[in-house]
């Protein structure tokens, strides 16, 4: 368990960078210490919220907080419940509801539900996945593969096409190691395929295109540009 001060002392990053990283990880504080929920527990906690919305026939973008806290407060510790609410919803924009109702964040909920479907599987038939994924999210939400940038790999060359879990956060932080790993997984990538796995390592001076120019070799196949390892002989 670490306080922010402990983390700041052992991690080479500015306070703002550290705060951003903690937020991206979905970390939260309990008694001053930063924690991250285990995936299965977070899935269970979020399911309580989604099931309640479904049972009460509430629109996902107009969730009454008093009722939600009263009902789910019997199922989850207050700090966990508040974290789930903060993580996956925001206050309604409408002025007359802005202090009493919250709206689920569509992209976050859709992304989490997709990960829940994909994590237990090696690969998933893409068509079947899309159907199951859409059926797993609250009524009114629309799933889109763009929501999963940096989280999945889609194999469009296989028959049928497949999708698998592939999280950018699990990749090496070192840029050379990351490229080596990516090219072990797939020998060639299009820009749209590889970009989500490089964006967080890019800088103002070295954007994704610059990184690709420096560390990869570009080839054209049937009019499509692919990026390969510079050391590949293929």
UniProtKB/TrEMBL annotation:
Coiled coil: none annotated. It comes from Aphis gossypii. GO terms for cellular component: chromatin; chromosome, centromeric region; Ctf18 RFC-like complex. This is Sister chromatid cohesion protein DCC1. Belongs to the DCC1 family. Keywords: DNA replication. One of its GO terms (biological process) is maintenance of mitotic sister chromatid cohesion. It comes from the Eukaryota. Pfam families: Dcc1 (PF09724).
């Amino acid at each position: 368990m670490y306080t922010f001060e402990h983390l700041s002392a052992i991690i080479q990053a500015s306070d703002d960078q550290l705060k951003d990283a903690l937020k991206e990880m979905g970390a939260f504080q309990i008694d001053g210490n930063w924690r991250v929920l285990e995936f299965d527990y977070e899935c269970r906690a979020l399911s309580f919220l989604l099931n309640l919305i479904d049972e009460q026939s509430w629109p996902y973008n107009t969730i009454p907080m008093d009722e939600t806290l009263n009902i789910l407060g019997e199922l989850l510790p207050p700090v966990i419940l508040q974290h789930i609410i903060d993580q996956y919803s925001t206050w309604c924009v409408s002025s007359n509801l802005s202090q009493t109702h919250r709206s689920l964040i569509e992209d976050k909920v859709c992304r989490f539900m997709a990960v829940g479907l994909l994590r237990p599987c090696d690969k998933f038939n893409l068509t079947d996945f899309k159907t199951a994924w859409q059926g797993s999210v609250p009524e009114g939400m629309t799933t889109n593969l763009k929501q999963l940038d940096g989280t999945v790999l889609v194999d469009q060359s296989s028959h049928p096409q497949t999708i698998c879990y592939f999280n950018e956060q699990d990749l090496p932080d070192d840029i050379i190691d990351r490229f080596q790993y990516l090219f072990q997984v797939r020998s060639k990538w299009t820009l749209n395929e590889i970009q989500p796995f490089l964006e967080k390592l890019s800088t103002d001076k070295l954007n994704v295109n610059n990184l690709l120019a420096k560390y990869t070799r570009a080839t054209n196949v049937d009019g499509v540009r692919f990026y390969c390892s510079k050391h590949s002989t293929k």
